[in-house]
Amino acid sequence: MPPPDGTLIRESATLPVAGRGWWWWPVETVAAIGAFAYWGVFGLLFTLASLPLRLVLPRRRAEILGRGLLHRAFRVFVRYLRVTGLVYADLGTLKSLRQLKEPVIIAPNHTSLWDAVFVIACLPQPICIMKDSILRNPFLGGGARLAGYIPNGCSSRLVREAADALQHGGQLLLFPEGTRTRHDRRWINPLKGGCALIARRAGVPVLPVFIRSNTRFLEKGWPLWKRPEFPIRISFELGDALEPGTEESAKQFTSRLQRVYEGHLSRAHKLRRQIEE
After folding, report:
1. Fewer Cβ close by (within 10 Å): the C or N end of the chain?
2. Which residues contact 25 (CB under 8 A, 6 or more apart)?
3. Between 101 and 84, whose confidence is greater?
4. At the topology level of CATH, where does 24-265 sit?
């Protein structure tokens, strides 16, 4: 059972959990149902509130409000996962993101549907790139639209809007794989070129974030009804910032990023991705 320290984050994602007998199964099941219910209720309320807020507030103020509300909601959710013992997330290295002053692309590998939740819980005002389908989702889309998140539908529009946002001093959260890591990939999907194009156009560095977990829960293709083995352990680690070279094409920079992710994620680690039959 998690120690009652009341903190949001734990410095180790690999804590031993002893004494979890059969009686933990119903406790974990109820806690997991509560986690899904949280997003169902909060997401729908946020969607209902977002339309009038977008109509009455200036665009910039609405975006700041939306991003701040999502940040707080995600912090509460991460705290809930910690207190219930469902997830031990090592977010210690992400604390430094709060001190970011310069524009930067924060670029995690994409292991699970909830990766963005943990990053945004540590980053108060990020600009996010999100799938069109999520922006249209009644449970998730309202808050994302209020926060001014950028749809990924049109490549040229995405690059232009993301670069403009960065040039105005924002921090962009972008998954360079474009989607969650496929089940059959060893470390990471082939990276899309959008991250490099945005970095070159805006003249900003890319800050890799390496995510590892002891489960493939909510990876691409994971059925929502399928129960994972709890507790889930997740590790987040910051890499060194990378900038496109003056003579380096977007394709070459993407290839360099690919090598960085594969090299780092393949290192020996307790939560290194395992091959599944």
Report:
1. C
2. none
3. 84
4. Glycerol-3-phosphate (1)-acyltransferase (3.40.1130)
